[in-house]
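Quick one, T. Sequence first:
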Amino acid sequence: MAAVLAVFCVSCAPDAYPGEEGAILHYALRLLPKTFDPPKISDEGSNNLASQIYDGLLTYHPYARPYKLMPAIAAALPEVSEDKRTYTFKINTAIRFQDDPCFEGGKGRFVTAHDVLYCLKRFAHPVSETTGWWLFQDRIVGFDAWRKAREGDVTAYLKEHGSLPPATYPGIEAPIVENDVHGIEVVGDDRIVIRLTEPYDQLLWVLAMSYTGIYPKEAVEHYGDQFRNHPVATGPFKVVSFDAVYRCVMRRNENYREEYIPDPRNKTEDRVDGWDWEADEKAGLLVHAGKRMPLLDGMEVRYITQDQPRWLYFKAGYADFLNPPKDGVDQALPDGKLSPELAARGVRLDPWPELGTVYSCFNTIDPVMQNVDLRRAIALAMDHAWTRDNLYSRQAVVATSVLPPGIAGFDPDYHPYHRADGTADVERAKQFLAKAGYPDGVDAKTSKRLKLVYENSGSSATAREFSDRFVFEMRQLGVEVDVISNTFPQMIDKMRKSSFQVAGLAWGFDYPDAQNIFINLYGPNKAPGANYASFQNARFDELFLEAALLSEGPERTQLYREMTHIVADEVPWVTRAHRLKQNLQQPWLTGMKYTEVNYQFWRYCSIDDEMRDRLLAEWNKPVRWPLVLLSLLFVGLILKAVLANGVARS
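Structure tokens:
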């Protein structure tokens, strides 16, 4: 019996990572990754992993907000012609690919401009089946024609051979014709020139996406269709173990280029215009300034798709970072503040608005909704603060601008029909409603009560809560609302046909530039195009075209700001919310500044492994008294059984 008690009572602090050495970051991914093949990387799970492995020509500055770009495989930012149509990139040919069996002798070779050309061509090739072709479509001289010709090559190949083997891309097989795309020219090993059909400054953001990560032709040919599971690249980490449903293990890439964390205090050349580096330094983000990257020895990413287990995994200390799920937010942030338990542990909260905007879209060519004063009245009557608190559980900030924070042109101070705190202004709304011809919600011409139609994309409880709230807000004005529940495709079809009045939508940014959302309000894109509001404003369109000719800088930012003012004045949309990412960081994780446009921020982080081991042992001490109690109960049951057996025998 003593032995039984010993078994129950002997315990030690759990070790989630037995045998692990070094500073290894642990992260729980909420979505399964689909692929490491750049042309196909469009989902969050794949992008999260691929960002640790691949570099493109350019990358994001880790700290500057609004976002800035800096060189990666390119040796510098490109030379741009005066007409903004020709970009010349010099390649850093001192960068090596990671060591891998796909190379002769297993040693990674140096990167050249030919690799960039190959990756661009493979991206465009129909066999790659990329979801991102729209980023280049009609942008590069001759590229669309080249892609069309490859469709013919594929058809001819299939006609002759019957099937297409893995890693076969008719039209870019060896020997490669280097300059058969008129708009892409390789000049030696270290230069590539891209010629555009028209100015497209956003090209630079595209060249920092995972879609355009650089990899060697040898890897595609060596691994075939398994290249999707075996990436070979130039980034700070390389995959050493990958399971599509369990985890991905990465370790430091021994060939990673000589790259250092920005050190603006000691290096004036590291100071970027618009970056408040002193604020980041004060916040402790530059604690590793000047150190060579990466600081981590590796990463281990587990896929925990269920919300509650992922939250418990972080709470136990086995994950170093978390965007808590809704149920976890309620525990982690009661009343919107970090819980005393997490605060006592040293967990840090870093709330960051998503690069996106939730809004209500008006059909500005509808006979009723074309009335700008009616749109203003509706905007003033909407209580965004209530929605934030009750429908978003405070996991959002009120959107006073069509642009979210972090995007150049964002102006939090101009919102003539939208209170800064997000609360409704019903009395002022009624004034504009009367001005629109509907005093107390009644049409002054027909004496009939105004009735609007609100399109919802779904019939879930959450969708109904949002539509019910709009019904309530309009009733405060004396306006009735009919709610139509659609599937999302049904609603979009109505909007393309302009057969709607009001609809609830959201826009997430593909890249951090205002043009990415303004394209949905540009006049020539009216329905059935992306401008579902069919918004027409000559000054807005003029500014849109003018901004397209400018590179990033104060002049373009000012144009973007003026465009946000026009949207605020004319109200084709009512901007409602920017949803929040409530990022939680364990105390041993340092140097991280989160962004969802690119997950490369991990390479600037470090882990205090000794602190983690010590705190994990403290946090996960076994609670022994239940085991002792169970043991005593167990002993009591046995004694009772023995005594009962003795009585029975007697």
